């Protein structure tokens, strides 16, 4: 059973974070153009789900502090996961 984490809206994010800079950068994924920031958001959600729910790191060099710095956020792994999922839904709705 998953516990529900309450997220305070609007989400506070450091305006100088790398994620916001990478949203404007494009990259090719299987002959399809995508945003580098969006790609990192998706892969970070996958990594955080494994870490928050099972304590598994995607690799031995992975640190949650790197994720927090990249997205300009703070909080526990569970709170950060909720924030990133909310951001994903917000981006996809536009």
The gist of it:
By secondary structure, the chain is mostly helical.
Give an account of the 3D structure.
Strands 1-2 form a two-stranded antiparallel sheet. A hairpin with a 4-residue loop joins strand 1 (about 25-30) and strand 2. Helix 2 packs antiparallel against helix 4 (about 75-90). By secondary structure, it is mostly helical. It has helices at about 20, 35-55, 65-70, 75-90; strands at about 25-30, 35. The radius of gyration is 13 Å and the shape is globular. The chain is built from 4 helices and 2 strands. The chain has one domain (about 20-90).
- Which structural class do the helices and strands define? mainly alpha
Tally the helices: what do you get? 4
Which whole number gives the mean pLDDT? 90
Give helix % range: 40-55%
Q: State the strand order across the main sheet.
A: 1-2
Portion of residues in beta strands equals 5-15%
Number of structural units classed as domains: 1
Secondary-structure element pattern, one letter each: HEEHHH
């Amino acid at each position: 059973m998953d516990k529900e984490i309450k997220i305070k809206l609007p989400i506070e994010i450091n305006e100088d974070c790398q994620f916001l800079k990478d949203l404007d950068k494009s990259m090719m994924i299987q002959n399809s153009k995508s945003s580098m920031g969006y790609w990192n958001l998706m892969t970070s959600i996958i990594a955080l789900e494994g870490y928050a729910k099972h304590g598994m790191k995607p690799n031995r060099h992975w640190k949650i502090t790197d994720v927090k710095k990249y997205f300009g956020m703070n909080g526990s792994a569970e709170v950060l996961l909720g924030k990133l999922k909310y951001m994903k839904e917000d981006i996809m709705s536009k």
